[in-house]
Design a protein that fits this description.
One of its GO terms (molecular function) is catalytic activity. It holds the Pfam family Glyco_hydro_57. Keywords: Carbohydrate metabolism. This is Alpha-amylase. InterPro entries: Glyco_hydro/deAcase_b/a-brl, Glyco_hydro_57_N. It is a single chain. The chain is α/β, with parallel strands linked by helices. The protein folds into two domains: about 250 residues, 7-stranded beta/alpha barrel, CATH 3.20.110; about 70 residues. The protein has 13 helices and nine strands. The strands form two sheets. It has a five-stranded mixed sheet with strand order 4-5-7-6-9. It starts with a strand and ends with a helix.
């Protein structure tokens, strides 16, 4: 069996609370100081050693597969420029393979496909500040996948996508092979987990700041074949279509999707965010798009559902105030 692992590095961004009385005062939504300090607090104990492990694997020609969110790269550059430059050197040389995802590791797709597309574009453009190379494959936050995700990701130039295997959608076929997306222009898919006799396995690892169950980086994994090569389709071979009409998430993710979407307050927040994007997407500023993405961060959505009832309601009200603050600028 060929083993691959995708190691995720993210750092959530703290969104400030906004009271009703402060709507329309053009206040900054992002708490940069707290976000940076949280990164500094975790750097020595949780982050540094993981990055050193990835660099050691790169030195040993093991070609680790890594996703770095834009906030993670920003805070790392401020915290340890030399380490950032080491990573840049290995990425630019191809010894670390970049995997693309959402800029803020958010669930923007659960809010709006338009917002999701914007966040995926933002990630590709933002990476140019750090690396010469760009990722060729994509994995959504929590490996969230359906047909529309594939359509959007393909339109942005990716060569292939990592998706979640589901036995019902596989209809008895094993997952250890390339599939075609159920889209107008077929798109190459690899499945990260499965139930059949896989000839390869892709594990999803929390390096830092993600919610995958495993935080174990297997230093023995050596990607002798670049993962992009696994997506290559032989035109003479008929590949099965993997059709997924509703979003599937990875069983390796700590929480189920309903934990982020089924609470009435979460539903109201996501709906109002989607309405905002639909109504003003051609007018929204870069900062307003960013705030909408940050409100869809998994940690932020969970705060509404899994803190105390009072705290959850306060997070919800603040979030809705921010959405009102955005909408007033375009009316």
């Amino acid at each position: 069996m060929d083993n691959y692992q995708i190691i995720h590095f993210n750092h959530p961004i703290e969104v400030k609370s906004l009271s009703f009385l402060d709507i329309g005062k053009d206040l900054s939504a992002v708490d940069e100081d707290k976000s940076q300090q949280d990164f500094v607090d975790d750097f020595a104990d949780l982050i540094h050693s993981k990055l050193k492990t990835v660099l050691k694997m790169a030195d040993q020609e093991k070609s680790p597969l890594v996703f770095f969110s834009l906030p993670f790269l920003k805070f790392l550059k401020k915290q340890d420029l030399n380490l950032m430059l080491e990573i840049k050197k290995q990425v630019d040389s191809g010894k670390i393979q970049l995997v693309g995802s959402c800029a803020y590791h958010s669930f923007s797709y659960l809010c709006s496909p338009l917002l999701f597309k914007k966040e995926v574009e933002l990630y590709l453009n933002g990476l140019k500040e750090y690396f010469k190379k760009k990722p060729g494959i994509f994995i959504n936050t929590a490996c969230l996948y359906d047909d529309q995700v594939a359509e959007i990701v393909k339109s942005l130039g990716y060569q292939g996508i990592i998706a979640t295997a589901n036995p019902w959608h596989l209809a008895g076929k094993h997952s250890g092979q390339v599939y075609k997306s159920n889209t107008a222009q077929p798109f190459n898919i690899l499945l990260s987990n499965g139930d059949g006799p896989d000839n390869f396995q892709i594990s999803l690892v929390n390096g830092y700041g993600s919610a995958y169950n495993s935080d174990f980086i297997d230093k023995s994994v050596s990607n002798e074949k670049q993962i992009q090569e696994l997506f290559m389709m032989d035109s003479s071979v008929e590949h099965s279509v993997y059709a997924v009409s509703l979003p599937l998430s990875s069983p390796s993710w700590e929480h189920k999707i309903p934990d982020y979407t089924n609470n009435p307050l979460q539903k109201a927040l996501l709906k109002q965010g989607a309405d905002l994007v639909k109504q003003f997407h051609d007018k929204l500023s870069a900062e307003d798009f960013k705030l909408l993405m940050l409100l869809c961060q998994p940690e932020h959505l969970l705060q509404i559902n899994q803190t105390s009832k009072e705290e959850g309601y306060d997070h919800f009200i603040s979030s809705m105030n921010w959405l009102t603050d955005i909408s007033l600028r375009y009316k």
